[in-house]
């Protein structure tokens, strides 16, 4: 014990010395500290308590969405789960995990452990209605023979999302979209990229959940007030918002309520987007 402790102190001292010489090491230490802080807010045990059936062979994605992949992916997004007070941070993580759970759910009303214990069950869309290629989009041209169907935690879809996601994250989204369902760190990164990136006129989901969203006149007229419901609007409002008692919206809310409870935080107001216009 004392020997190990001694060498640890020595290593820390060494790192401190080296970081004076190489500023980049200080940046690495920052990423390490943030990863530690995320691991503190969401432990491996909590992650497994949320995704009770992640390793169930009934789930096509079983074993794919690993806790360590999530933590590693989050290193590329230093402000995720790391903005505001601990309650805000936990609520943001719960909201993110709830939305990706709906996107990948394998649950049904009478499923074992309830419908909201089956997040992260699928990694790709099983019967896509098309290859999701919008050929009028010249900025992100489709690669022959590739499908831009839903893949990964956020079910990234369309060429105009695969292109910019790949560019931001360092892979060729147009030529190699399959990587999103083959590499779990990249998969989580696409989910976080969507969550963190503002796509005008929409704010980022992150800004909404950490209280940095400032509604425009158009937002006020459309009743787009901050809350989890607005995040749903950003993700799929065109199909789900402005509808009374939409079952998809209810599923997203059900996941969020369960996760917020596991994180010991309240959900905040405006869970629904029933009275909001979509973008
Ligand atoms: C396809 O892209 C064009 C141009 O970017 C856009 O106007 C149109 O709405 C898109 N269609 C779909 C189905 O996304
Ligand atoms: C990548 O994923 C696709 C399905 O999206 C699968 O057909 C292919 O075999 C996978 N490739 C590797 C190398 O795992
Ligand atoms: C919402 O729909 C569900 C069925 O999907 C139904 O059981 C419930 O009573 C409805 N609630 C309201 C408020 O309309
Ligand atoms: C705006 O949304 C809130 C709930 O988020 C609702 O109570 C209110 O009635 C809505 N207002 C309008 C004008 O639709």
Give the topology, please.
Elements: H1 2-21, H2 23-41, H3 44-50, H4 67-74, H5 86-103, H6 159-169, H7 179-182, H8 184-196, H9 205-209, H10 217-221, H11 228-240, H12 247-263
Helix pairs in contact: 1-2, 4-8, 5-12, 6-8, 11-12
One 2-acetamido-2-deoxy-beta-D-glucopyranose (NAG) binds next to loops.
Shape: globular
Rounded mean pLDDT score: 91
Named CATH architecture of the largest domain: Orthogonal Bundle
Tell me the count of domains: 3
CATH topology of the largest domain: Lysozyme
Topology order in helix (H) and strand (E) letters: HHHHHHHHHHHH
Distance between the termini: 60 Å
Give a quick account of the main beta sheet: strands, pairing sense, barrel closure: none
**Tally of helical runs:** 12
Ligand kinds: 2-acetamido-2-deoxy-beta-D-glucopyranose
Uncertain segments are: 1-25
Query: Considering DSSP H and I runs of 4 or more, what fraction of the residues is helical?
Result: 40-55%
Instruction: Output the radius of gyration.
Output: 20 Å
* CATH level-1 class of the largest domain: Mainly Alpha
Please count the beta strands (DSSP E, at least 2 residues each).
0
Determine the strand fraction and express it as a percent band.
under 5%
Task: Look at the helices and sheets and give the structural class.
Answer: mainly alpha
List keywords for this structure.
single chain, 279 residues, mainly alpha, Lysozyme, Endochitinase, domain 2, 3 domains, 12 helices, disordered N terminus, binds 2-acetamido-2-deoxy-beta-D-glucopyranose
């Amino acid at each position: 014990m004392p020997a190990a402790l001694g060498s640890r102190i020595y290593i820390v001292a060494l790192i401190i010395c080296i970081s004076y010489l190489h500023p980049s090491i200080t940046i690495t230490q920052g990423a390490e500290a943030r990863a530690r802080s995320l691991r503190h807010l969401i432990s491996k045990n909590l992650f497994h308590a949320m995704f009770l059936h992640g390793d169930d062979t009934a789930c096509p994605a079983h074993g794919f969405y690993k806790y360590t992949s999530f933590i590693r992916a989050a290193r590329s997004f230093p402000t995720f789960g790391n903005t505001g007070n601990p309650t805000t941070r936990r609520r943001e993580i719960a909201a993110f995990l709830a939305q990706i759970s709906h996107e990948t759910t394998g649950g049904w009303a009478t499923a074992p452990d309830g419908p909201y214990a089956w997040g992260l069950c699928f990694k790709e869309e099983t019967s896509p209605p098309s290859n999701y290629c919008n050929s009028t989009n010249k900025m992100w041209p489709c690669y022959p023979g590739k499908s831009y169907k839903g893949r990964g935690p956020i079910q990234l879809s369309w060429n105009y999302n695969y292109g910019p996601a790949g560019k931001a994250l360092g892979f060729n989204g147009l030529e190699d979209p399959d990587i999103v369902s083959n590499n779990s760190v990249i998969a989580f990164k696409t989910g976080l990229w969507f969550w963190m990136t503002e796509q005008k006129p929409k704010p980022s989901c992150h800004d909404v959940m950490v209280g940095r969203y400032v509604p425009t006149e158009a937002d006020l007229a459309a009743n787009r007030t901050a809350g989890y419901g607005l995040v749903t609007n950003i993700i799929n409002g065109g199909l789900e918002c402005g509808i009374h008692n939409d079952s998809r919206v209810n599923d997203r809310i059900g996941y969020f309520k369960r996760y917020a409870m596991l994180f010991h935080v309240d959900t905040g107001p405006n869970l629904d987007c029933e009275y909001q216009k979509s973008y």
